[in-house]
Amino acid sequence: MPRKSNTDIRLSAHEKLCAERMKQLLRSIDELKKNVAILNDSMSKGKGAVAVLMALGALVIGVLGYFNIK
User: Whole-model pTM above 0.70?
Assistant: First the structure.
């Protein structure tokens, strides 16, 4: 079996370090994806609430406008 040179040992250590960094990046990306999904759900709920409030406001203004016509 050939003996590993100093360069081979350094490359092996570097590859191990890069693999660990890649795992950390993938975990971070997965966490960010989950957070973005939660934010999208929250924004959708907020948009729905604003639409309901605008519809109720338009209804109230319409009723008040109907009864104030002289």
Answer: no
